[in-house]
Design brief:
heterodimer, A: 365 residues, alpha+beta, Rossmann fold, OB fold (Dihydrolipoamide Acetyltransferase, E2P), 2 domains, 6-stranded mixed β-sheet, 5-stranded antiparallel β-sheet, 34% strand, elongated, B: 558 residues, mainly alpha, MetI-like fold, 24 helices, globular, binds adenosine-5'-diphosphate, binds magnesium ion
């Protein structure tokens, strides 16, 4: 039922355009995430849907009903805040039953739903505890329970895990998805943590400077991002600038200068066009394992837990990163060694060279 | 100098100049119980007439103060909410207007209100009547206190409620209200369930301050009270009639009441967040009806909260000031209604009664008193604030310091008179020095509070610790790091205390001897029916306080 549809939603703060003609449809029972660097307008967007902010232009429909002039309390949404915002003067029970109480539900019904919800969401705290006696994770679960008590089918989450510790955060995100799926809810989850978005959503929307630049299933955004910015923001990527030399049945051959050439399966660019080549560090490997091989010199090695990152300087001075897992039986070259880096042509992405320059196109503001 | 010595000296000074005068009155009553008993309860001629007078004044004062506070809360809390949560043009101005009665010496303000309501120069004339709009002794229905007295007390206490609650609401995360609304609560339901309980400590302290202020108000009350007698004016009157034991007994009753009010309030406010979860258990169908009513108000009438407080501010603050300024011009050369030049400002100031030279002399006295008492108070307040922040007994000192802030100043004045004057230690006689000693007592807590406010907002302890890890001694750390940081607090405190000293009437009346201050002069002029002279002096006071307010504004905006 609660399909959400935004048409040309725009919100300005003076000269800043926090939301710039946003068009977005969230399907019923879909778990959708909105990601983007901070300040890109995610909170503004979710607050517009909730009715906390009134957009300057555009229409918002929830379940087919135009809600632009419907006050917050009548929109029938559940909202989860980054700073959790459990009422500090009420117990867990008081918080969870707040919605039904202020809506005048009969007490027996309230109690029954509350018990069910506590069970379902696995709120482990004592119901007579006060919020400041709970751990961050339990607090946020209580807040989710509170948001769902009014039987709303649409759950809006604004950086719900942002205030929590890393470990709790990782565990709780799967809980969130489970709850949403078990109850058959529609969810919009805002986060700046792309990994979080990728691991739990049906669909991810990427925002930048008040606009939606791209949306798609997590795997699509990871394997085939349509925009350079996405390639950089979702996961990690190496970027090299070149020119399309030749287009063959195999793909396009791109000249990176200084005698380096690289093959991509992408044939959508034109001969002679200036392009940016991107590939993910985890798809590159050391040694000549396929036809795409770049020679270079190791400059440094960084160990980070289970992974090792190798920095390789190419003849033209660019530095690329190669990521591989740490396997003890494979020797790791040392800084200063000459190495060869190979990337399968299937994993080489090609984008037109951005008008504003590569650096500004990738910048996070 | 060892720090222990510094602390001891500070504490001794503090006890002699602040605590001793505050509590001396109570001990006086105990020490001279026989005299008190004789005069108050067992006078051979009038019996317990004085006791009955005390009770009557107390009951009247309580009725006045309680209804004032109730009115303040009903309209001040919504105004505080609007000021804390909404942004609109003219907000700064509105805040200044609300605060203005705190700055204007109350006798001047009381006189402005008197002129506005009861004379033809005020609203009456404006509406085409040949007299004032209402008579001085017209009684407000229901609460049964004189109308003008009520208006003046509301205007003078409104800022305490509004500003305290506003500050409190600003400190409450707005997300709670939004959360409540996403859960389906209407604005008013949200206010009742979330904001109100969370702001309750602020509402409580605002109400206590307003109550204390109303109970102790003397300057404006003397001018507008007509035939009624409040507790604080009774003290001034009895002191001037040399009925010292009766005045002292009444005064110590008021000190005692101040204690009884402040202790529970302190304990309640300091008990942490959970203390304010009030839970009303209301039957379900009633709850539903309340919610439906709140829905109606939230949707249809929520704008009322924006408008009614504005009207109150306009009626109680803006109009009286405008009327006084306007009347000074009207009455400048002659009485505009009779045409007599004896009724003009110029004649009264420079004519035979020569109020102008009185005014100059009073200005000098007022400024010397305000400067000297504020300076000494600041010198005591700075080390005391450090002691409050650092020593385990700091909390106790801070609580004790609230007492001189809220006891009626006339009790304070009487206490100082009895302590230092001829019937006590006989070290100082009535006059400018005794006024200074009295003003120090309530100035110290004013300065301390504002230093502590700036101290708590600035993470000074952290800076100081880092200075000390860099090798500074404790004393060096305070001098090099903390003093510059609290400079703002000291300055604000200095101005606040200066203003307060400039406007004080109740205590000054009792200890002034032959040295008049300006607010006292206004009261004298009104009693001598020298209305044009009083108009001029009130205008002068209002102008003075506007300058002070401007200074504070400029300073705090940086
Ligand atoms: N109340 C406001 N007044 C002025 N500017 C605002 C306000 N709220 C947000 N902004 C601006 O709008 C932009 C988008 O903000 P926001 O939606 O909070 O971003 P995000 O949640 O993605 O970090 C930011 O540039 C921010 O500075
Ligand atoms: Mg945000």
């Amino acid at each position: 039922m609660p399909e959400v549809k935004l048409v040309n939603v725009t919100k300005r703060y003076g000269r800043i355009i926090a939301n710039d003609h946003i068009n977005l449809t969230i399907k019923d029972k879909e778990y959708i995430s909105v990601i983007g660097p901070s300040g890109c307008g995610k909170t503004t967007l979710i607050k517009c849907i909730a009715g906390i902010i009134e957009p300057d232009e555009g229409e918002i429909y929830i379940g087919g009903r135009l809600v632009n002039n419907v006050p917050i309390e009548d929109r029938g949404i559940g909202y989860v805040f980054q700073n959790i915002a459990l009422f500090p003067h009420m117990t867990v029970w008081g918080n969870i039953t707040y919605g039904p109480r202020v809506r005048g539900f009969p007490p027996e019904e309230t109690e029954a739903i509350a018990r069910e919800m506590i069970e379902m969401i696995k709120v482990t705290a004592r119901v007579d505890a006060y919020p400041d006696e709970l751990s961050g994770g339990t607090q946020q679960k209580t807040a989710v329970a509170r948001a769902l008590m009014t039987r709303s089918r649409l759950l809006l989450l604004d950086e719900p895990l942002g205030a929590l510790d890393l470990k709790v955060r990782a565990a709780l995100r799967y809980e969130l998805r489970r709850i949403v799926k078990d109850l058959g809810l529609t969810a919009l989850h805002v986060t700046h943590d792309q990994e979080e978005a990728m691991s739990i959503s049906d669909r991810v929307v990427v925002m930048r400077r008040g606009r939606i630049i791209e949306s798609g299933r997590p795997i699509e955004l990871y394997m085939r991002p349509k925009k350079l910015f996405t390639a950089n923001f979702v996961g990690e990527a190496n970027f090299l600038v070149g020119e399309v030399k030749l287009i063959t049945g195999e793909g396009s051959i791109i000249d990176l200068g200084d005698g380096m050439k690289i093959l991509s399966r992408d044939r959508s660019r034109e001969m002679g066009e200036r392009v940016v080549v991107a590939f993910r560090p985890e798809f590159a490997s050391l040694g000549r394992t396929c036809e795409n091989a770049l020679a270079g010199k190791m400059t440094s090695i960084i160990y980070s837990g289970d992974l090792v990152r190798l920095h390789v300087e190419l003849p033209n001075g660019d530095v690329i990163v190669v990521k591989r897992s740490l396997r003890l039986y494979e020797p790791i070259p040392r800084a200063g060694d000459e190495v060869t880096v190979s990337v399968p042509p299937e994993n080489i992405l090609v984008y037109p060279y951005p008008e504003r320059g590569l650096h500004r196109e990738l910048s996070l503001e | 100098m060892s720090s222990r010595l510094v602390v001891s000296c500070t504490l001794v000074t503090f006890i002699i100049f602040v605590m001793l005068p505050t509590f001396y009155l109570i001990s006086y009553v105990f020490l001279r119980w026989d005299e008190v008993w004789y005069e108050v309860f067992a006078n051979p001629i009038i019996g317990d007439e004085n006791w009955r007078q005390i009770i009557k004044a107390l009951i009247f004062s309580f009725r006045l103060s309680l209804s004032t506070v109730a009115f303040d809360l009903i309209f001040g809390v919504p105004l505080a909410y609007v000021l804390a949560r909404k942004r609109f043009p003219g907000k700064g101005l509105l805040e200044d207007l609300v605060t203005l009665p705190l700055v204007i010496p109350t006798s001047g303000f009381g006189f402005a209100t008197l002129v506005t309501w009861t004379t033809v120069a005020g609203l009456g004339g404006l509406l085409g009547m040949r007299s004032g709009l209402i008579s001085l002794n017209a009684v407000a229905p229901f609460i049964n206190v004189p109308f003008i007295l009520f208006i003046v007390h509301v205007a003078l206490t409104f800022p305490y409620v509004v500003r305290t609650v506003e500050t409190k609401i600003q400190s409450i995360d707005m997300t709670y209200e939004i959360a409540s609304r996403t859960l389906g609560a209407y604005s008013l339901t949200t206010f009742r369930n979330i904001l109100f309980p969370l702001a309750l400590p602020g509402i409580f302290s605002g109400a206590v301050l307003a109550f204390a202020r109303s109970l102790g108000e003397t300057g404006a009350t003397m001018i507008v009270s007509g035939v009624s007698t409040t507790a604080s004016i009774a003290i001034v009157r009895w002191a001037s009639e040399f009925k010292i034991p009766t005045a002292a007994f009444m005064g110590s009753l008021l000190v005692f009441i101040a204690w009884v009010i402040i202790l529970p309030a302190e304990i309640y406010v300091s008990r942490g967040r959970r203390a304010h979860s009030l839970s009303f258990s209301v039957p379900m169908n009633l709850t539903r009806r309340i919610i439906r009513f709140e829905r109606f108000l939230s949707r249809k009438l929520f704008f009322i909260k924006d408008i009614v407080p504005l009207v109150i501010v306009a009626v109680a603050v803006v109009i009286p000031i405008a009327v006084v300024l306007n009347s000074v011009i009207l009455y400048w050369s002659a009485d505009p209604y009779t045409g007599k030049i004896e009724g003009g400002v110029v004649h009264q100031l420079f004519g035979p009664s020569n109020y102008f030279s009185h005014l100059l002399k009073a200005t000098l006295t007022s400024i010397i008193v305000a400067l000297v008492s504020t300076y000494i108070a600041t010198c005591i307040a700075i080390p005391i604030s450090f002691i409050i922040e650092r020593r385990w007994y700091g909390r106790i000192i801070r609580t004790m310091l609230k007492v001189p802030l809220i006891i009626p100043t006339s009790s304070l004045g009487l206490s100082v008179l009895l302590l230092w004057g001829s019937s006590g230690l006989n070290l100082v006689s009535s006059g400018i020095w005794m006024i200074i000693l009295t003003h120090i007592v309530f100035s110290v807590p004013v300065v301390v509070e504002s230093i502590i406010a700036s101290y708590e907002g600035s993470g000074i302890q952290m800076y100081e610790e880092s200075a000390r890890t860099l090798g500074a001694t404790a004393y060096n750390a305070i001098e090099a790091v903390s003093l510059p940081l609290i400079k703002g607090g000291v300055f604000t405190g200095f101005i606040l205390s200066f203003t307060r000293s400039l406007g004080e009437t109740g205590a000054t009346f009792i200890v002034m001897g032959r040295d008049l201050t300006i607010p006292v002069l206004v009261v004298n002029m009104v009693e001598a029916l020298a209305i044009p002279a009083a108009l001029f002096t009130s205008t002068y006071l209002i102008a003075l306080s506007l300058v002070m307010l401007a200074i504070v504004r400029v300073f705090t905006q940086r």
